[in-house]
Design brief:
The complex is a heterotrimer of chains A (342), B (757) and C (172). Chain A is an alpha+beta fold. Among the domains of chain A are: 55 residues, Uridine Diphospho-n-acetylenolpyruvylglucosamine Reductase, domain 2; 104 residues, 2-Layer Sandwich (Enolase-like, domain 1), CATH 3.30.390. Helices cover 28% and strands 20% of the residues of chain A. In chain A, strand 2, helix 2 and strand 3 form a beta-alpha-beta unit. Chain A is globular, with a radius of gyration of 19 Å. Chain B has 757 residues and is α+β, with helices and mostly antiparallel strands. The termini of chain B are far apart. Chain C folds into 2 domains: 76 residues, Roll (Ubiquitin-like (UB roll)); 73 residues, [2Fe-2S]-binding domain (DNA polymerase, domain 1, Orthogonal Bundle), CATH 1.10.150. Chain C is built from 5 helices and 5 strands; from the N terminus they run ββαβββαααα. In chain C, strands 2-1-5-3-4 form a 5-stranded mixed β-sheet, with helices on one face. In chain C, strand 1 and strand 2 form a beta hairpin. The N and C termini of chain C lie far apart (57 Å). Chains B and C meet through helix 2, helix 5 and helix 16 of B and helix 1, helix 2, helix 3, helix 4 and helix 5 of C.
Chain lengths: 342, 757, 172
Amino acid sequence: MINFAYTRATGIADAIKEKVEANGGGQFLAGGTNLVDLLKENVARPARLIDINRLPLAAVEPMSGGGLRLGALVTNADTAYHPEVQRRYPMLSRAILAGASAQLRNMATNGGNLLQRTRCYYFYDVATPCNKRQPGSGCPAIRGQNRVCGVLGTSAQCIATHPSDMCVALAALEAVVRVSGPQGERSIPIAEFHTLPSNTPHIENTLSPDELITSIDLPESPYAAHSVYTKVRDRASYAFALVSVAAGLELDGDTIKSTRLALGGVAHKPWRLPAAEALLTGKPATKESFLPVAEALFAGAQGYEHNAFKIELGKRAVVRALTLAAKGTAAIHDVNGQTADA
Amino acid sequence: MSLLKSILGTAVNTDAAEHLGKPTRRVDGPAKVTGAAKYAAEFNVPNLAYGVIVSSGVARGTITSINAAEIEAIPGVLKVLTHENAPKTAWLDRSHRDQISSKGGSPFRPLYQAELQYSAQPVALVVGETFEIARFAASLVRVEYDEKPHETDLHANQAAAHPPTDNSGGYTPAPKPRGDAESAFEKAAFRVEAEYSQPSEFHNPMESYASTCVYGEDGKLTIYQKTQGVQNCQAYVCSVFGLSKKDVQVISPYVGGGFGSGLRPTYELYLAVMAATALKHSVRVSMTRQQMFSFSHRPEAVQQIKLAANGDGLLDSVTHHAFEETSRKEEFLETVVNWSGLLYTCPNVSLVHQLVNLDVASPESMRAPGAATGIFAFESAIDELAYQAKTDPLEFRRKNYAEKDQNLDKPFSSKELRACYDQASERFGWQGRPLEPRSLRKGSDLIGWGVSTGCWEAMQQKAEVKAVLTADGKLTVSSATSDIGTGTYTVMTMIAAEFSGVAMENVSFELGDSSLVYSPVEGGSWTVASVGSAVKSVCEELRAKLFKLAGKMDGRPLGGAELADVTFVNGEVRVTKDPVKSVTYAEVLEAAGLDKLELDTTEQPQLIKRATHGCYSHSAVFAEVSVDEDLGTIHVTRVVSAIAGGRILNPMAARSQILGAIVWGISMAMAEEGLMDHGLGRCMNHSYAEYHVPVNADIHDIEVIFVPEHDEIVNALGAKGMGEIGIVGVASAVANAVWHATGKRVRSLPITLDKLL
Amino acid sequence: MNLATANASPPATQFVTLTINGQQRHLEVAPWTTLLDLLREYLDLTGTKKGCDHGQCGACTVLLDSKRVNSCLVLAVAKDGSQVTTIEGLAAPGSELHPMQQAFVDCDAFQCGYCTPGQICSAVGMIREGHAETADDIRELMSGNLCRCGAYPNIVAAIEKAMDATRARLSV
């Protein structure tokens, strides 16, 4: 762990000012669940940590116009168990509860969750090359141990995935990330927040330098009654997703009016394909309708030695998630965020 | 001694035991639930320095430079030890060997030379005034290498396999072939030929290896060490660093899990002692979790098995050929294939165990070493053969039941395996299990039932125990063994109370200190058999001595009773038929003018009785799995295991041992896998996040049945040990259940969901 | 990196006030000291265990402002003004065991004992959170605490046994 300096920001403007002053060497400290881990691995080597935990960003508030604003510093646990989140965005609640452990969810914040780094083994091991950690050093994952890596939107430089569960649900819900920076405030649609690796895998999102996430805004959602988060992993809990699917259906009787689908564990960002979702519009909510959507989502997927199975698994998980969503959120009762047949 | 035994030794198998056989809470329980129990890295002494280990990034090659001088200039850094400046240690390999290492190998010596032996080996130790400074400085160490090609892939190097040339304690070479397995196979009605594989697995006890080496003013070392053998560590430190035993004390009252990883001295001990003696300063060195993947592990194995049965479903041919990895410099030896000649009656058997040297750390025993590996493959193949013969797999096992140890051509000391099959299958509800796979469903999930036999050798080692009865009637019994979570403190207290007649609350058992009398390392499930038998002996001697002293007392409180006429209970000698006539131990000591009574006994294995028998524990394991057919996710929903493990001394701790071992078996079946990048020659999932072991949510109903065995041959207590037997056969029972659920035979562990898609 | 020109000095310490097991402590800590290391290496409160040091095992679980957290991922300097309860502070010194501690002993819910303080703190934190009702809930919500000895069935039994008594303690 590097010999960083520590300061505690007193306000949003102060935090941004300190970050600017750190001249690229500063990092914000919120829940610390990923950052402190990366400090110990010598992957993160900031000159200064700017503690933002005392900023007034820890509220869940209704928004004018009907949405819900999740403060950037609200913990994952408080978000998942918030009655309004559970009632209006059960997919999000379940996605959060499917991730990490109770302890980590008590610490991790919503803003930090957006900025989680990949769990690719090579990124975490500073004795090995990694283009994301050290641009130009190479990507051993492509020919190495890539079970945890992606099959969609990968590049010749990087095949890492974004590890978040929460972000998958946020993508399906079309959340908006509000940020504040030296140039003022702005909003970034979640679909535009995370990036694909292409030739710059060290860049993972569209935040400008020194911008601070202040909230995640959830628009009104017609999907609460038919929402699901299906997570497939190597053990029953406390493991990152091999594949996960956030699915929401808006139904008119048995007919699908609209669909939201996002995939986790398969790409450098939560994976969405609105064109695939549109295939379901006007269709009955049956397996026959769902299969082509699964195929469309994985069109062009590229598997590697140890993760090619994710393509078939992902398709099946999509069909499973949609099938469960059609049954209705209430039918998939599982307080712990895992889907189970009712 | 022998006369005494004939008089008092009969108590062993009576049902009148006061403590033995009764579920007893751990005597160290309160210390463990309050945080009072101190582990190796928790002995805080003034002015302690911290050593942080720097690990290599490449598997093979030569270190060309290390920026040690730069690092030593960092404020707060006391020393950087590397191969360039490390003080010399003993020259000969034999000085670096310990009780457990193979007899002829070259044990790994940290910071010995520029040549690398494996990836993640220690290459420097940074000692700082605080842990944080040392960690910071270690992060700035830059090591340059001249890399050379390495080989870490067992499958790719199988052609280089060779028979073991070395030996080590606990290893039994494969028996000579019997009959003609090959021609029997060719002629048989039913045949199975298959290859099974299992990856490297890492012990990963919850507590990382740590050494707090306290440097005394007189240069003496007091070392608080995580280990399964304090005296093994003491002897190693003395031998490697040329120190005298009186100047090195190794202490280890609590051990946060071992599972075999602490049988041998670990490299942080070497580094801590080197730093402490070089700096004349107390030093603590702890491994990181990542470094817990950088030494001992269960070796990767490939196993080729051919089985055949005749038209009546009788096993007629067994061929089992195992290839296991070892390091370049040592042969790690575990008994893998012998079980296949032992478990069932079979006239034609050919067993071969071979090694492949790779650029990896030396493997080491991991819970049920060899048996967990070999029996997984063999019991999977037996299941395949039973299906070929269209016979229920339990029926097939019963039909081929072995009535004697065919490897040794000797009877078993005891073997209640048949009762294990009966009781566990009854409890599981096996009867009526459909033969065909994919026959059972629950909702949309596929259900499968599998069975396996398990076996482990019941061993005994020499051990010494000291007993001190003080004038207040309290008894302290001691031996330099360990409690790695197995319940040693508790069971030894029970045995001592049972055979001394001192009440449990007045007995204490001391362990984990090299200054105590001799004990073997805690391993192989032999601790109760070895140390426990010695505790029994010493307490029996104590009773005889007390009786003799009581006879000399004025007023003859026992009225001239013979030894056979008295009972020793609750700190008193009583005339059994006239309990009014009694005398307390305290009174006996007082009358004799003694402030304490001290006895010391060494118990040798019952070699004569054991030599004519095969001594093993057995198990029958039944598992149920539920498989999501679409997604491949597997849940082990139920396990019932019946254990024939001799006499059960503390059923509470014994059950916990078996429960835990079943969790280990589930883990072996479903989760554990060191993921090697052969390009880098490095294990990549070196963390608890990515090297999966079960979490609470993975574990469902587990039931343990103990089938009583009366065995006077294995040892004086009739106990066979609980640490290993519970895991053996679990992975095969699960694999067999997965096949029964899905019709897919997964022959490579772990059975991850992708293998079922 | 040329260390001769780099800043390789330890970072400046800062003062924080923490209430640990009911006792207010004024402490001088460096930013790089985690709450876990502060407890174990500076305050000799070694009941809180270091299992992985990366938030992957739960052995370091303590109650921070009544919530269970992984103390290995908490920078002590950031928690000025907080309350910390460790295994040593669950029951008052010299008094009888906390019901959860007693249940762990009674149910043999541990073997080596190294994960045990974290399991117990986590269980108490879980009961306070109020989302665990069934054994399945307990299994899921205790999955952040690895037990390599595999004592899980007994851990679940102990928690079920101590749940009511633990709840009763929380409400007073």
